[in-house]
Structure formats: C-alpha cells, structure tokens
C-alpha cells in the first residue's frame, strides 16, 4: 500500500503517536469527535448581478483591473488590452475559443505562442502576456481559480509572464464563497487560486504589489447574457 | 442576601483604602457586607509562577471561608479571574475524588468582581458619587479578557458627578505588570509600562483608574519615577467618593 | 554560512538587549501596529468568525485525536497520486532524507519556499555540509539569508529589518549570491520587490529541485496546500522537476471540505486579507504540469511529545498565522530572536518547550516570557488557550512531573535553579494559609514603614529599577475592620 513496508522511522513515528493518544477511548472513531459547522456557507443572499458586482469590487480592491464585455465585444477588448500593453508575444493555451482572439494575430504584429510541453521556461520568460479562462471565481474574496482545464493551460503560463488576462464567464462561473468554490473543484487537479496580482507584505508588514508572479492582472467579465 | 468581601491580600496589606471604599460604597447602596477574617490570598502569585501544589491549600481555604454566601465581592478582576478560571483546573487535579472541584464550582460561580456586582446584581450604574477630576480608565487584561467586564466600569464612571473620562491610546494593551513577570522579565515589563504611562499622560488626566491595584502599583510606580503627577486610584475609591477626594 | 539557534541565551537576557535597541523597537512597533488594526477589520467582515473558529479547533482536535489514522490515509492517497512519502522521527532524519533525495537528482542547488519547518530542522546548514546550496526565495527569507541572520517572525522572517536596512543588504550582498541589485536602488518597497524579482528569476528558471513546506495536507485526497503572496511559492512548486515538501505531521486535516474553514481563517488572521494572492493545491504529480517527482517528508521532531500532553496538545492546532505575534506586547518589545527558535512570540513560548523539552535554560525561560494578558488567545483563529498552556508549562519547569520526551514517558525533575524559589513558594503558601502569620508579617511591615527606601536592593531591584514602591499604609484592611467593626459583620441594612 505504501511501497515502504519496513521503514523503521515510519514505525517509530506511528508508535509514538499511538502511545501519545492513550487518553483517547479505544472505541472512539475519528468521526466521533464532533465538528460543529455552525458557520455560514455564504455571507449574505445575492442576485447573480450582485454577486458579479461584488467579485469586481473585490478584485479591484486588490489591484486587479476589471473589464466587462459581451461575446461580440470581447475580441476588440482583448486586442485593445494587448495592444495597450505593447505585447509582442502572447501565450494562449489550448481550449481558448479562437473567436476571443480573432482580432489578434500575425497581421497585428503579435505572435501567438501555444502552450506546448516543449515551451521552455526561458522562452516563457520572453513572453509578454498570457490570455486564459478560469474554472471559477469567488465573489466574497475576489479570487480566480484555475484548474488546468480547457483554456487554462499549465500552471507556469499564468506565472512567468508579467501580464495575465483572465476571462471569467459571468454569472455562471461566479460563486459566492469559499465553501461553494471547494464544492465545485476537483482536488485531483492542480489548482491555483489567484486573488489580485503578486504581492508581498514582507517590508514592514505593509502590502506592496508586484513580486514574482504577473504584476498586472486584468480580469474580463464575459457577460453570457449579452450578445 | 449574604454578601462577603474578598478584599485580596494585596489590598489588605498595601491598599486598605480600596477595601474601605468598597465597604463604604456597598453600605451606601444598602448592602450589608461581611468580612470573614479567615480569608487570605487567592494563590495567584504562586500559581502563576508554576507552584501549583502550594496553591491548593489556598483554594481549599477560599472555598471554606466563602461557603454559604450568596455573593463574594472582590475589588480585583485578576483575583476574580483566578477563582473563576483557574480554581476549577486546580481542583480537577486535587485527587480527592472531586470534593474540592464541587466546592469550587459552588463558590466560583458566586464570586464577582465589584463592577459585575454593582451592575449585574444590584442593577445600578449611578452610585451617587462625585469626583470632579479628569480620569483615564485603564481596562486591565483580566477585567477585559478573562472576565469580560465590557463596558461596566465605563458605565459606572460615566455616571459619576463632575468626572471627565478619557480613553488612553492603545487602551486594551497590557500594562506589563503580569505578577512575577514584572520581576522575571523586568526590562520588557518596564518598557510596556513606560509606553502605557506615556499614553496615560497624553490624555491629560489627573488620575488613572483601574479595577486592579496590582496593575496600578506598577503603573503608579513608573509614573512616579518619571515625575508624573498622574495619580493611580482604584475604581472603588472613585465610586465611594462624595467630595472628590477619592474616598 | 547558515546560522542556527544553538546556544541562544535565556529569554530575559536576550529580551532585555532587544528592549535597548531603539531601531528594532521602532521597526517592530510600526509593523505589528500596521497589521493589528487591519486584521481586526478583516475579521469583522465575517459575522460568523466565532463559528469558524470553533469549527477549526474541532477539526484540528479530531485530527490530533486520530492522527495515526489520518496520516496513514494521507500516505495512501499521496502515494496513489504519484507521490512518495517519507517519515522522519527527528530533524536529522528529515535532513538526511532531503539530502539523499537532492543527491539522487545529481543537482547541487535547490530553491526553497519559506518554511519554518526546515528552519526548525536546520536543513540549509545540513545541505551546505553536503555541498548543496539552498536559495531562499521568499522576500523576507531572502533578506534573512543575505544578512546571515535568523528569522524573527512566522510570516515575515525579516520583520526586524526596515526598508533602509533591506536596501543596504540588497546593495551589499546580492552580488555574492547571484545577480546584483540594480544601480541606484532606493528604499521604496516597490523597488526592493523589483530587485528581488530580478535577482531570483534566473534561479527559478534554472532550478531543477525545490524544497517547500505546506500549510495543509488533506488526508482524504492526499492534497497539499501552500498559501503565499509573492509567487515564489508557485515558482518553486511548478517549475522544477523534483519537489520535496517537508511538513510537520500536525498540518493534516481530515477532509477536502475542511479547507473551507481554514482558507477563510488563515489569510484574514495572517496578512489581514480576504484572500492571499496565491494558493497552490496539488495532489501527487500531474502529467505534463509541474514536477514529475514529488516527495513528502512527514516530520515528527517532538510533535508526538506535545501530542502526549493532554493540555499541551492544543498547541498542535496552530496554523502559523502569526496573529498572536502581531498582537503580543511582549513580542513587540522583545523581538523574535529572544525566543531562540523559528517559532517566536506567544506560540513559540508554548511550542518550543514542548518540541525540545524543558531541560535547558532557554526552554525553561520561555513559559515565563508572558504577562498572561490573554491577547494571543483572543485573536487565535484555532482557539489555542496559550495562557493556559503557559501556566501548565510553568508548572512543569518549577515542580516537574510527567512528560514525554522524544517518545519516552519520563518524570521531569524541577529545574535546578528553581529549588530555592520552590522553598520560598512553600513558605509563602504556608504564611498565606495561616492568617495569623500573615497578620504578623503585615504588622512588621507597617512598624518599619519609616525605614522603607524607594529603591530596593537585591532581588527587589528588578522592581525598583524602573518603578517607585507604593507608599506603605498605616494599618491593614483587616486591622481596620477589626478596630471599627470587630464582629466580622458590617453595619448597613440588608438589601
């Protein structure tokens, strides 16, 4: 089962733990010790529109830039964001709908870099921007969660480039709270929770944005109801 | 209603005026107070220094001395916290088949810090005091966090005729006394007390008041050493005062 | 050149030195006060904070009471997901395992995510001896490493350094470790962060092996969780080919769902944020994304000793948020180094003597490094009653008693220098238990009141060095009562 059946350190640690727990009644099963879960599963009742508005407000609180678009306006918006950034090379993972980036391409002087296993960290470091979708977003905390699903790519592509554009389909991808988010996520997938651009509190315990991850995080709320 | 005064060893020995003020105040409010002479120290200085065993006889003494009273009133939040928080833990380890634990459960529930007795039992906040001075109230840690006195002391002070109440910056922070901490970690204790003293002086108050004379001894000692004119005074002495002199 | 905690003086001596260091005091005061108010505001946003706290304590208690069960489930699930689990009873074992794993890759350097656990085991020094260089990548940990210094805070190991000091360190020392700091570096935090970004990027890009800790391990799924801000964690957890995580056994939680409690409590308690910028969750290895080899080293190193202590056990609930440090008036003035371990502040004062035992002066002094003000308990998101554990450990130091030391049940003898104090305490107890004797002592005090100096000699000097003595009254309360009432009852009517 463990592949290391006769590890003396393992036996020693487990024996110490069992001796240490001599006061726990023999008949007590792990689930017997009560866990009162009187906490809230969401903090307040919200309409879908309110939930999306809260997400936007909380993303902005932590210095992410928030944009809104319908499907029809999205290509132009994304093109504009990349142009304003001066991005020459953009990573786009498999599963990003081609129409999102219909306005971007060789014609616009932008090189689209696919997220392939052959893409080295050095090459990735020379990329200017990355455009992805996400698995879901959490309104109460202003968090995006990526799970490596379609349109999200490997974890490194949203880490090494300095500019991350993340598209959230609203309202379907937005949940209220952390408990709701965990309920929708698959723990067996590699998960990255992102709440604003990279930051540090390491200088005098005051928050400063921008260390190793993308220093600019732009979030596009893609309105599913709009044309 | 039988009410006993647990004056505490510090007040008995060094601050008898606080004990007298409690008697004056309670009698003025129509409460007949008894002082069982067999009372002693709650044991906190010993217990907080790690000496549990010599503390146990003092716990036993307390339960015997104060058995049978409806209320035990004490002008010390820290001693009340010792009785209510630590006595059950000490009694649980007495190894006497639960006898001490039962006695403690009985008497600890009836032990009240002075402001709890006034506000919760007597239901008064205006005790008819006059004290025309500027007063900074220091909420001691045991009053604030162990007993949860909340705004009781403040409500009592707000009703005192002529009194101007001031809140020092960082009011909820410990003054640095901490019993033997003041001696074992004298440098840190003095640094905490000095910062607290500065905050108190900055309020412009003439008097710093609290519900624990041990904290006030530490703060008063630092204020005096720094040549400050801010005078430490127990809350009971302000509440007992009718002419503004402090009991 | 990695400093260790060996040979640190007892708390009062180190603390007294820190109190005299004006720059250190100002740095700590500014940082802790900044975060204190913000934490309170972040916590106030959640109306169910008390319920979250209760649930967190209960989840941790459930885990601890059945730790063997949950560790075996964790091992099974990590293994199933492609990871390899190793067990280490103490620091040396953990360091040997990590050293061997790094050697097996053929690499001579590793990048590290901030990990108090590997500070505890002294991993960097052990790797150095084996010819392996460890690069710290957390900004504050980098400051500590460049300064050949020791951490002084759980969250911000270089909290004792202000921006001007950090700038100097970067300017003077970065070159010796890799890319030098940019010309004309100022002490603006954004510029300092940029300097760290440039300095570390080349290390991230070439690193083949990373060493991390973890904030949580989910037994039910085998998932590990690292909560961070800067992105250095993500770099270490996703770019290298081999990932080695050294994690204390108490970091286990039973179920995936339990994270919903801790991911709400930890960021608000720690950095006062609704959510920290980055959280990485991984289960074993994933084809094509992240490290292809994952090793989990489960560390005991005294944790099972703490587990054996029914009062001390609650200490193992700790999620290392550092809220207790930030609110502690003693920590603020004594600084983190005085606690002589990577675990400073109130939690360190209870954790270190339990992990290491109470045989030497530093560990014996730690339970006394508190005024018992209770602020730590109030802010603790997992409701560790730190004052209760402090008192419990004081008793162990003073009176001795049963304790488990490195897995062996032993009777601890009272600390040597406490013998005299013990005799004095017994004498005091005797006097206090005999009111007649107490009365005689009081009267002696009053008869000599004209003779009392304002400053005391001998052991009393610790009091009177900074404080005047209170004036001695003319008579005790009990004498006044006897003189004026006599009969034991007061006048007054009955209410």
UniProtKB/TrEMBL annotation, chain B:
One of its GO terms (cellular component) is cytosol. One of its GO terms (molecular function) is oxidoreductase activity. Pfam families: CCG (PF02754). Residues 3-83, 135-219 form the Cysteine-rich domain. InterPro entries: Cys_rich_dom. This is Fe-S oxidoreductase. The lineage of its organism: Bacteria, Bacillati, Actinomycetota, Actinomycetes, Kitasatosporales.
TrEMBL record, chain C:
SUPFAM superfamilies: 4Fe-4S ferredoxins, NagB/RpiA/CoA transferase-like. GO terms for molecular function: 4 iron, 4 sulfur cluster binding; metal ion binding. InterPro entries: 4Fe4S_Fe-S-bd, 4Fe4S_Fe_S_CS, FTHF_cligase-like_sf, Helical_ferredxn, LUD_dom, LutB/LldF, LutB_C, NagB/RpiA_transferase-like. It holds the Pfam family LUD_dom. Residues 393-483 form the Lactate utilization protein B C-terminal domain. It comes from the Bacteria. This is Iron-sulfur cluster-binding protein. PANTHER family: LACTATE UTILIZATION PROTEIN B (PTHR47153). Residues 316-384 form the 4Fe-4S ferredoxin-type domain. Residues 73-285 form the LUD domain. Keywords: 4Fe-4S, Electron transport, Iron, Iron-sulfur, Metal-binding, Repeat, Transport. It comes from Streptomyces mashuensis. GO terms for biological process: lactate metabolic process.
């Amino acid at each position: 089962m463990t592949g290391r059946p006769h590890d003396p350190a393992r036996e020693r640690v487990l024996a110490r733990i069992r001796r240490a727990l001599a006061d726990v009644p023999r008949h007590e099963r792990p689930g017997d010790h009560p866990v009162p879960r009187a906490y809230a599963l969401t903090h307040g009742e919200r309409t879908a529109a309110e939930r999306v508005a809260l997400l936007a407000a909380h993303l902005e609180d932590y210095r992410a830039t928030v944009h809104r678009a319908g499907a029809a306006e999205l290509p132009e918006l994304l093109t504009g964001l990349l142009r304003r950034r001066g991005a020459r090379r953009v990573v786009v993972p498999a599963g990003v709908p081609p129409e999102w980036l219909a306005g971007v391409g060789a014609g616009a002087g932008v090189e689209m870099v696919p997220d392939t296993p052959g893409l080295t960290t050095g090459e990735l470091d020379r990329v200017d921007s990355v455009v992805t979708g996400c698995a879901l977003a959490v309104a109460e905390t202003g968090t995006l969660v990526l799970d490596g699903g379609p349109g999200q790519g490997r974890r490194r592509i949203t880490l090494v480039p300095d500019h991350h554009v993340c598209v959230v389909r609203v309202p379907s991808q937005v949940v209220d709270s952390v408990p709701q988010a965990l309920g929708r996520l698959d723990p067996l997938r590699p998960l990255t929770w992102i709440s604003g651009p990279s930051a540090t509190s390491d200088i005098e315990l005051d928050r400063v944005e921008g260390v190793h991850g993308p220093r600019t995080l732009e979030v596009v709320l893609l309105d599913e109801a709009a044309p | 209603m039988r009410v006993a005064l647990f004056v505490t060893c510090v007040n008995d020995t060094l601050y008898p005026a606080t004990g007298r003020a409690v008697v004056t105040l309670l009698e003025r409010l129509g409460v007949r107070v008894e002082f069982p002479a067999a009372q002693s120290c709650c044991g906190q200085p010993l217990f907080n220094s790690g000496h549990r065993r010599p503390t146990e006889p003092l716990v036993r003494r307390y339960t015997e001395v104060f058995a049978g009273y409806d209320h035990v009133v004490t002008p010390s939040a820290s001693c009340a916290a010792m009785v209510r928080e630590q006595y059950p833990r000490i009694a649980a380890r007495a190894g006497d088949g639960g006898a001490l634990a039962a006695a403690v459960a009985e008497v600890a529930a009836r032990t009240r810090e002075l402001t709890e007795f006034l506000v919760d039992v007597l239901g008064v906040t205006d005790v008819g005091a006059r004290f025309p001075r500027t007063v900074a109230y220091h909420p001691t840690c045991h009053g604030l966090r162990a007993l949860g006195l909340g705004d009781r002391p403040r409500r009592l002070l707000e009703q005192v005729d002529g009194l101007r109440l001031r809140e020092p910056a960082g009011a909820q922070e410990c003054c640095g006394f901490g019993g033997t901490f003041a001696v074992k970690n004298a440098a840190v204790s003095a640094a905490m007390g000095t910062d607290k003293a500065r905050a108190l002086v900055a309020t412009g108050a003439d008097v710093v008041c609290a519900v624990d004379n041990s904290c006030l001894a530490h703060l008063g000692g630092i204020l005096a050493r720094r040549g400050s004119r801010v005078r430490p005074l127990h809350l009971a002495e302000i509440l007992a005062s009718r002419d503004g002199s402090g009991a | 050149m990695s400093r260790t905690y060996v040979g640190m003086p007892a708390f009062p001596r180190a603390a007294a030195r820190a109190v005299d260091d004006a720059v250190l005091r100002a740095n700590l005061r500014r940082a802790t006060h900044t975060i204190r108010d913000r934490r309170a505001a972040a916590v106030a946003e959640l109306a169910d904070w008390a319920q979250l706290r209760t649930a967190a304590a209960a989840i941790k208690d459930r885990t601890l009471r059945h730790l063997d069960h949950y560790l075996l489930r964790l091992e099974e699930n990590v293994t199933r997901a492609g990871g390899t689990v190793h067990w280490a009873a103490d620091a040396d074992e953990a360091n040997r395992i990590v050293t061997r794993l790094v050697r097996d890759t053929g690499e001579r350097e590793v990048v590290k995510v901030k990990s108090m656990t590997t500070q505890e085991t002294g991993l960097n020094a052990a790797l150095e001896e084996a010819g392996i260089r460890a690069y710290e990548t957390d900004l504050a940990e980098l400051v500590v490493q460049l300064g050949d210094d020791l951490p002084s805070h759980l969250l911000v190991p270089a909290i004792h350094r202000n921006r001007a000091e950090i700038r100097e360190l970067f300017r003077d020392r970065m070159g010796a470790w890799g890319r030098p700091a940019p010309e004309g570096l100022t002490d603006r935090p954004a510029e300092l962060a940029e300097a760290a970004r440039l300095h570390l990027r080349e290390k991230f890009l070439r690193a083949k092996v990373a060493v991390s800790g973890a904030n949580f391990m989910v037994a039910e799924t085998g998932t590990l969780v690292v909560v961070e801000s800067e992105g250095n964690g993500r770099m270490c957890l996703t770019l290298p080919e081999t990932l080695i995580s050294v994690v204390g056994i108490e970091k286990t939680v039973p179920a995936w769902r339990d994270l919903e409690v801790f991911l709400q409590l930890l960021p608000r308690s720690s950095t006062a944020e609704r959510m920290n910028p980055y959280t990485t969750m991984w289960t074993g290895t994933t084809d094509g994304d992240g490290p292809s080899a994952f090793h989990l080293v489960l560390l005991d190193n005294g944790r099972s000793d703490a587990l054996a202590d029914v009062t001390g056990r609650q200490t193992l609930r700790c999620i290392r948020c550092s809220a207790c440090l930030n609110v502690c008036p003693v920590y603020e003035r004594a600084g983190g180094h005085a606690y002589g371990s990577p675990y400073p502040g109130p939690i360190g004062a209870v954790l270190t003597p339990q992990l290491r035992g109470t045989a030497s002066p530093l560990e014996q002094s730690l339970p006394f490094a508190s005024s018992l003000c209770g602020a730590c308990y109030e802010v603790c998101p997992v409701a560790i009653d730190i004052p209760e554990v402090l008192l419990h450990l004081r008793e162990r130091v003073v009176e001795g008693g049963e304790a488990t030391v490195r897995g062996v049940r032993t009777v601890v003898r009272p600390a040597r220098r406490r013998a005299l104090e013990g005799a004095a305490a017994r004498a005091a107890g005797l006097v206090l238990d005999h009111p007649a004797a107490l009365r005689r002592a009081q009267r002696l005090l009053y008869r000599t009141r004209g003779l009392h100096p304002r400053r005391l000699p001998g052991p009393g000097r610790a009091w009177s060095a900074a404080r005047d003595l209170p004036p001695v009254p003319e008579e005790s309360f009990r004498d006044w009562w006897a003189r004026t009432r006599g009969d034991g009852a007061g006048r007054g009517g009955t209410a």
